[in-house]
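User: Reviewer 2 asked us to show a designed sequence for the structure in our supplementary figure. I'm pasting the structure tokens here. Could you produce the per-position amino acids so we can include them in the response letter?
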């Protein structure tokens, strides 16, 4: 049986600036082994993106729920997910048109999962994302953030960026997250390691051996995770924070060697990261040291004697008698005055250069190291986690093939990129209807008059549904997103 929970909380930047939560999530379960989940993140630069994210998550999950069953053909499932994205886009455009507004004021991302027992199908648009716990016991990144070379997000309106796939491995758990939370699972300090995901953190949210959601209950797990996310420090994540998790306890994941779950040595990783950045940022300060290291004499082993160079004890080498006279002792020459001055000046110049860099308005070097490392993002300091969670967490950034350098800072205020510029989208293409050959989108429902019970998927609704959602007469269970 598939269990689920979700959390969506306003970021501290939004709270301080009186901005509504722009994230939204929705989870629908049908029977025991079929579930749908979606997360959507309204762009900070779009005035009505909170409405756009709500519409996108609601319409897409509703569309899939009405069209997908346990017996639906795998290829048709992907076509239905594709059509659900088209329906979501159409609903957003309809909302904009009814209010005489431009559709780009409703820009949002959308990531959707369909879990049929242990098989995952998904659709993806934007910089939210998904992680899966496979039956082999490995935590794997399923989607990658869609951003251009300047770090700008490709939202739902970029239909040519949409992805629809079937995950190739069997899974026991799936986590969807908007970028504020997603990037915490991929610390920059381990981005070059074989395992790039913060395994112990993913385990804390996804592993039923730890959660025991079928024993403890969905409401209790949801409350625990909400409490944990609320306590994430401001300097770690100040954007809206949303996760939606599907777990099937009947699918037993294998255990990996204990080393797989160990916490990295964050302090040592940060020291190496900062040292590498300083060498890159201030090459002049390390030029003398690097040169000295390169000029260090190396000890070479004496070559083995070859047959024609071996001399027996009875043989006397033919030498010039004069050559055997002891040579006069070599007198050590005193260094010249200019050389002494030069040697004395080098350390002074190095120190002066370093002080000049710090005093000339450069805030990148401080007590805790640089704030803008080589790759354009700063690893945040470790935070203390609860006893049932990983003991130490260094929050970081997600590496994306679509982003040069692959990083965006999670500490950037919502609505800004890591460069401090407003979060905007690239040039917008014309939106398209459902692609040929796919199931046509159903008429877009009027959300205000559809008669469906409201499903709160973020922290902004003052009257959220009960945590348990509701069970209708058909046995369908709706998971609310209210917090």
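Assistant: Here is a per-position design you can include in the supplement:
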């Amino acid at each position: 049986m598939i269990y689920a929970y979700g959390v969506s909380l306003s970021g501290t930047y939004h709270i301080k600036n009186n901005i509504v939560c722009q994230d939204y999530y929705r989870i629908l379960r049908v029977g025991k082994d079929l579930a749908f989940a979606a997360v959507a993140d309204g762009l900070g630069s779009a005035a009505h993106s909170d409405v756009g994210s709500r519409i996108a998550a609601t319409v897409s999950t509703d569309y899939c729920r009405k069209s997908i069953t346990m017996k639906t053909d795998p290829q048709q499932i992907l076509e239905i997910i594709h059509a659900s994205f088209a329906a979501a886009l159409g609903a957003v455009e309809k909302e904009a048109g009814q209010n005489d507004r431009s559709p780009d004021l409703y820009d949002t991302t959308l990531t959707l999962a369909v879990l049929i027992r242990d098989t995952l199908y998904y659709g993806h648009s934007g910089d939210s994302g998904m992680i899966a716990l496979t039956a082999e016991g490995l935590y794997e990144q399923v989607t990658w953030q869609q951003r251009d070379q300047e770090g700008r997000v490709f939202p739902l309106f970029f239909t040519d960026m949409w992805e629809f796939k079937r995950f190739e491995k069997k899974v026991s758990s799936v986590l969807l997250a908007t970028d504020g939370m997603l990037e915490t699972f991929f610390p920059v300090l381990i981005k070059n390691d074989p395992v790039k995901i913060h395994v112990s953190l993913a385990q804390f949210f996804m592993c039923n051996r730890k959660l025991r959601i079928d024993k403890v209950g969905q409401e209790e797990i949801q409350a625990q995770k909400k409490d944990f996310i609320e306590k994430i420090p401001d300097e770690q994540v100040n954007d809206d924070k949303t996760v939606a998790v599907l777990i099937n306890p009947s699918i037993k994941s294998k255990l990996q060697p204990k080393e797989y779950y160990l916490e990295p040595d964050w302090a040592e990783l940060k020291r190496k990261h900062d040292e590498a950045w300083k060498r890159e940022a201030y090459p002049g300060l390390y030029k003398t040291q690097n040169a000295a290291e390169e000029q260090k004499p190396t000890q070479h082993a004496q070559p083995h004697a070859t047959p024609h160079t071996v001399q027996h004890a009875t043989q006397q080498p033919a030498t010039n008698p004069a050559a055997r006279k002891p040579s006069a002792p070599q007198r050590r020459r005193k260094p010249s005055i200019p050389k002494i001055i030069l040697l004395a000046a080098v350390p002074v110049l190095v120190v002066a250069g370093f002080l000049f860099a710090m005093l000339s308005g450069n805030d990148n070097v401080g007590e805790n190291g640089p704030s803008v490392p080589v790759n354009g993002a700063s690893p945040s300091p470790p935070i203390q986690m609860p006893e049932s969670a990983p003991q130490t967490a260094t929050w970081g950034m997600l590496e994306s093939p679509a982003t040069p350098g692959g990083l965006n800072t999670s500490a950037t205020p919502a609505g800004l990129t890591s460069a401090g510029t407003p979060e905007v989208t690239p040039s917008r293409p014309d939106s398209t209807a459902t692609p040929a050959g796919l199931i046509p989108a159903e008429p877009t429902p009027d959300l205000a008059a559809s008669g469906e019970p409201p499903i709160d998927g973020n922290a902004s609704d003052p009257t959220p549904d009960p945590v348990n959602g509701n069970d209708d007469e058909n046995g369908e269970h709706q998971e609310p997103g209210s917090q």
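For the response letter, you might also mention the following. The chain has one domain: 3-265+383-479. The mean pLDDT is 74.
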